[in-house]
Write a structure and sequence with these properties.
It comes from Aotus nancymaae (Ma's night monkey). By secondary structure, this protein is of the alpha/beta class. The protein has 23 helices and 33 strands. Among the domains are: 245 residues, beta-sandwich domain of Sec23/24 (Immunoglobulin-like, Sandwich), CATH 2.60.40; 67 residues, SH3 type barrels, CATH 2.30.30; 215 residues, von Willebrand factor, type A domain (Rossmann fold); 118 residues, Severin (3-Layer(aba) Sandwich). The longest helix has 22 residues. It starts with a strand and ends with a helix.
Amino acid sequence: MSQQGYVATPPYSQPQPGIGLSPPHYGHYGDPSHTASPTGMMKPAGPLGATATGAMLPPGPPPPGPHQFGQNGAHAAGHPPQRFSGPPPVNNVASSYAPYQPSAQSSCPNSMSTSSVTQLGSQLSAMQINSYGKSSGVAPASQGPPGPLSVTSFQTPPRPPQPSILQPGSQVLPPPPTKLNGPGASPLPPAMYRPDGLAGPPPPNAQYQPPPLSGQTLGAGYPPQQANSGPQMAGAQLSYPGGFPGSPAQMAGPPQPQKKLDLDSIPSPIQVIENDRASRGGQVYATNTRGQIPPLVTTDCIIQDQGNASPRFIRCTTYCFPCTSDMAKQAQIPLAAVIKPFATIPSNEVRMIYSLYLVNHGESGPVRCNRCKAYMCPFMQFIEGGRRYQCGFCNCVNDVPPFYFQHLDHIGRRLDHYEKPELSLGSYEYVATLDYCRKNKLPNPPAFIFMIDVSYSNIKNGLVKLICEELKTVLEKLPKEEQEETSAIRVGFITYNKVLHFFNVKSNLAQPQMMVVTDVGEVFVPLLDGFLVNYQESQSVIHNLLDQIPDMFADSNENETVFAPVIQAGMEALKAADCPGKLFIFHSSLPTAEAPGKLKNRDDKKLVNTDKEKILFQPQTNVYDSLAKDCVAHGCSVTLFLFPSQYVDVASLGLVPQLTGGTLYKYSNFQMHLDSQQFLNDLRNDIEKKIGFDAIMRVRTSTGFRATDFFGGILMNNTTDVEMAAIDCDKAVTVEFKHDDKLSEDSGALIQCAVLYTTISGQRRLRIHNLGLNCSSQLGDLYKSCETDALINFFAKSAFKAVLHQPLKVIREILVNQTAHMLACYRKNCASPSAASQLILPDSMKVLPVYMNCLLKNCVLLSRPEISTDERAFQRQLVMTMGVADSQLFFYPQLLPIHTLDVKSTTLPAAVRCSESRLSEGGIFLLANGLHMFLWLGVSSPPELIQGIFNVPSFAHINTDMTLLPEVGNPYSQQLRMIMGIIQQKRPYSMKLTIVKQREQPEMVFRQFLVEDKGLYGGPSYVDFICCVYKEICQLLN
């Protein structure tokens, strides 16, 4: 089996006999003994568990010191800890553009002693990269010295600063043991060159020969490449020029200046995205083949459902599962699916924009397997002339119900195969019968309750007035079924500060009536009739109320608020009306009034970077946890709009929205003239979203593996039922699978996700998604089928779940270690055996290191007192419900050069890498990550562009306070606004625009998003991190 890879040779590399990975360790994936570990614990991958043979961690706590992995090792007097011996971050910017000096250090483990640090540092700084084959993923050099690009090109290696001629068999003393390198890994042996791009040993005493030209046969001293999985396909290779015995570099005179490893020489996410777009963009992707790898989330294509669910609904970390659990443990690639059951489907892909094909079997209900209860789907095999069928999941043979019988054709397929969605499509819906309803009765349509904090500050800053005005507009747009004239959703209104105010807005009233509940300890609903109403019928009374609310509380001086009783009141109202629903809460302060769920300010920076830091992510009181469980039990989802001006304990307030399938929106230091548009866009989008209520999800699998872990806005009362008060089109649930037996290459691995839910019109339905994956006993197939974007989604969620229970330092170590483990296993088992100590990246994982580094530098995993605790809790919660497309953009933002716009074209300008080296003084760049949008302006931006976009004559005249671009009627302005609209339209959160001028203070915030550079608050650059991972791999292989 041929395997394409990205190859990177280390300094002085020469294969040693017997190099290999230590025996597979039970890691995060696949160890049965770990399945019962506490919820959210991140299990160490490989050597970070119990120390086994070849493990790198000695028992007992390590001495504090700079070698520890993390941003905050003990500082030597006056010296920041040097955690990484690689080259300093590359800075190709003009010298006039002074870089900021981040106060923090690299977050990579320093796994060498000081003596070998200097040596390895000089070796690594000599790295350069040759790129072989068109899919090498190396970006075209736009800055810095380009590396050689032809297959046969070979640059004479410069002389290293301290030449050491290592003859075959000579020894270099291993560095003394440190926390991360165990008893002592030997440093890297000397590098040899081979024209096929793989470092390998020449025969003893071989002299350097120039590589043969293409088409020439290899001369003596170049043994043919042998790979244990077939010939290696073209891939890019990192080569480290350093001397080898008898090479011209060793003979040379004074040392030559060295080339630093720079961004252009390591895999570029932008190149990978562009390559996929070029090969698969705009095409039809049919889902008729089991285990095929879909286009990347960043590629626009038309998906045709032909028996497997669209990748819009399900994406997997790999589309080929290993046949055995031993293989899974060996590779340590998590086996997971990211499921977005209500994903929006473009209108050109399906019959109706919102809904899937609907199957209605009347009172008989869906046809299901008697044993495992899987629903009828394309994986069922009809036999005995159509009278029976064999379940694809458990192999049980079932009788076909008489009403469902149909004859088979000459290939054993039913004659009505293409007329039945459940036989020919991967995704469809069933109308559910009474058996699937609560208390065996059909549900009522859901209700929306709007709950407004009317404390003093919200009245004074105009927020209450803004909300009330906007509600008049958005209530016209309540979601409805396609065929319906009006929405079936009923609405209700509550205001609150220290007490709760319920409003009667019955259609026959001339004026709304207010009822006050002062007993917030035992909340009850003071009225039933007239609280939840049809908006169309009560429109005039509702508008009357919304006009009166701001004036009603204009003289209130009450600044204390309650929070838990507000949710309790909404839930009780839905319970009394016997319907599911959603609470929209508009809140702005820490709830300090005497009531259940009262919170105190516990924002303690002294806990940062200690083992107690996890407390900051946990709710302060268990009131919110039990409240969330009650809400889910009654189908009550909570969406929270937060407007904090100081600490509000997002970890506590956000818990109910997270566990009930709601959404948390946060507008820190809300200013009416700057932030209202972002808030109003979010409110409109949230109300209009496609959503299902009172949902239960079950993931079934074929024999041999099962779903073991679930991440998302979910609650689980047992090991199989995923309960959600609501689920909308932006929410994803990530599911991890483990083996419980062998899988077969013939039958593959089958997944069926079934979501039982109530529609916006009150109909009970089942939404079914089916996906078939391949299985293989070859590790190469597993690596070839990986999807990095889905892997990062999984790693982020498992890490962010673990922060509740484990020290961040341990979590970061596990992530680095597992990255190294996955790549080392590939290197050992799937790459050419002669390439002893090369960093070889599988083609499908070329950008895993850069994405993993982005995750490690996210503020949730960075222990830095400069970052607000609330912001960290907010981002943690956001990521837990993200789909793959959203997490991809969130961790690796999009950076577009606006100054290269072609005003005649409707396509977006080609993105550039997220690094300061890509910015230019004469450029204008747009950066977006799904939460924020920045327009960065270089000091020498073209005046005609500035005039065209801002309608002002020069750079100095631009007002950086604006959050919306002015409507200037010219092509530049229209094109830029269209591009911003395209980027925004696919995203769940409205991105507020920030204008940033080069060399002005706000640029610091913008720089945090240049994720390939060294982190502003710590964390290594991409270049440093790839070197760090390379060292970890070398240790594993040694």
